[in-house]
Prior knowledge:
eight-stranded antiparallel β-barrel; Lipocalin; 8 strands; alpha+beta
Amino acid sequence: MKKGFYLILILLNFSIYSCSKDDDNSSELAGNWSGTFSGDVIGTWSATISESGKVTGKTVVTSFSIEAELNGNVNSDGKFTATAGTTSLGYIFDGQLDASTGSGTWKNSSNTQTGSWSGIKK
């Protein structure tokens, strides 16, 4: 009986540790981020990532002096997806974040402009 009880305690410890590991990564990504993008157009971006992974911020296309809201999500593995403007008239950013840096690619909705982006956590 004691062996079964200890086995349950050990398994419970592993399951709690596994769940907290995912939460730690989400918390690690939360905060203020900023960076640049380049390619067919150039600009800057800034965003706040919430504990739940929601992305809110803005982009500025410096070559045209156009500002747009940036909205999206980051999952617990750091996969970043956000849209600047609207899905029909904006830019779509995809990439990967780690604890302090991120990078990826962007394209406009009609796929006629593309490029790359990078950023850091402040």
